[in-house]
Amino acid sequence: MNKRLDTCLNLILPNALKDQVLDELLKHPEWVGPFTMHRVEGHGDPDGSLTPAEAVRGRSERIRIEILVDASYVDALLAELHRGLASAQSVWWLTPVIRMGSLQ
Q1: Rounded Cα–Cα distance for residues 34 and 62 (Å)
Q2: pLDDT 10s digits, 19-68
Q3: Helix or strand (DSSP H, E) at 12
């Protein structure tokens, strides 16, 4: 059975939570489609908790994870992530996936 991957869940989180989030994602293959992970630098930290080096640079180091999911599973996935990994420094948003495919 193919998953309907019509939504992209975007997560921005502190580096320290990366492995825990990946563990949670891998626990739910029925909800989670393919995902990518990138190191990013963020501006406008929600709670202002920058390390001294980040304060000097004016940005914070974060991880961005882009997860393709079926929209009907988003609330369940977010509830699981929130339950085990709640953090004011972690933010998320959804974007629709209009079309996708392979370049083969």
Answers
A1: 20
A2: 999 999 999 999 999 999 999 987 765 455 666 666 666 667 899 999 99
A3: strand 7-14
Instruction: Check: pTM over 0.70? Answer yes or no.
Output: yes
44-58: string of b/e by CB count within 10 Å (b at 16+)?
A: ebeeeebeeeeeeee
Q: Cα separation of 65 and 39, whole Å?
A: 9
3-state SS assignment for residue 92: strand
Exposure of 9 by Cβ count < 10 A (0-12 exposed, 13-18 middle, 19+ buried)? Answer: buried
Model pLDDT, residue 27: 93
